[in-house]
Design a protein that fits this description.
Blueprint lengths: L4 H8 L6 H14 L4 H9 L4 H28 L5 H12 L5 H18 L6 H15 L3 E2 L12 H7 L1 E2 L1 H14 L4 E4 L6 E5 L1 H7 L7 E6 L5 E3 L1 H10 L14 H18 L3 H14 L2
Parallel strand pairs: 1-2
Antiparallel strand pairs: 3-4, 4-5, 5-6
Helix pairs in contact: 2-4, 3-4, 4-5, 4-13, 5-12, 6-7, 12-13
Length: 290
């Protein structure tokens, strides 16, 4: 109990009219991190002072944002670049109370259902058909056609709740499930219609290049996992009048997917005129661009 007394004393100084004192107290509280958030919330609830409450809210937001920044920096420096963890951290910035284990719990039935149907004798195409059946027929994931560029459609927790997403979010959850099952399915940075590629594992082993252009086929989760080839991408490029780029055909890393996710969210919030959100996301983008 004694260890909380200094913290509570600091919290009590947050209504001090002296800006110097407030800035010193605020800085110390922020450095203490997430452990003091319950104390800050208790203090907020027990006060009717609007300035005091506003300052507490700002401190909590700073602590939560620092947690995301530090965690994302750690993720960026890791070798694994686990896609689920990266997507979770981006969502946690918007939804600070989001729990990683609860997200895993929602994904586990999808992974488990698919694992039960898979075996080593199946071809790559047969494995994808099973994954499509589990994702779109059993668990009822579908496209959001009404407003698929709104920010919430980019967050995995929203997709897990609503079962509707845009091309990027549906591709992300599809890739997460596939990679948890050791299926060589990765993102492809195709403008205006993010897709996935099923890698030729044997070719990747022989070339020692995980992201070479050895693709068995492509997958479109926004169209219930439809499978197609390189010609369809070429047709899409011509139809959309895009300048040809080899990256439209080559699998990208999970790191790149997180970059695309942040950029997409920045664009979405910019259209809605949320400059603070754009500013925060630009900071997160700088962290993973190091």
């Amino acid at each position: 109990m004694k260890q909380h007394i200094p913290v509570q004393a600091l919290i009590g100084l947050l209504d001090d009219p002296d800006d110097f004192i407030f800035n010193e107290v605020s800085s110390k509280l922020i450095k203490l991190g997430s452990d003091i958030i319950p104390l800050l919330e208790d203090a907020w609830e027990s006060s009717l002072n609007e300035l005091f409450q506003e300052r507490i809210e700002n401190i909590i937001q700073n602590i939560q944002f620092n947690f995301v920044k530090q965690s994302l920096d750690k993720w960026n420096k890791s070798e694994e670049h686990d896609l689920l963890e990266g997507v979770f951290l981006i969502a946690k910035h918007q939804y600070p109370n989001l729990d990683f284990q609860k997200m895993i719990d929602k994904l586990e039935p999808i992974i488990q259902n698919t694992w039960l149907e898979l075996n080593n004798n199946l071809t790559a195409l047969e494995k994808v058909r099973i994954l499509n059946h589990i994702m779109f027929d059993i668990h009822k994931f579908s496209r959001n056609t009404s407003n698929n560029t709104s920010p919430e459609n980019f967050y995995l927790n929203y997709l897990l709740e609503e079962k509707r997403g845009n091309p990027l979010s549906l591709s992300i959850i599809y890739a997460i499930v596939a990679q948890k099952l050791n299926l060589p399915i990765y993102g492809v940075d195709l403008p205006r219609n993010f897709i996935l590629a099923y890698k030729d594992v044997q070719s990747a082993i022989s070339t020692s290049d995980e992201f070479s252009n050895d693709v068995l086929f492509y997958i479109n989760p926004y169209n219930k996992g439809a499978v197609f080839g390189k010609k369809e991408i070429e047709h899409f490029i011509n139809q959309q009048k895009l300048e040809f780029d080899e990256s439209f055909f080559v699998p990208c890393s999970n790191h790149r997917i997180i970059e695309i996710l942040i950029q997409s969210l920045m664009s979405s919030y910019e259209k809605l005129a949320y400059p603070d959100k754009v500013s925060d996301l630009s900071i997160l983008f700088e962290i993973i661009s190091k």
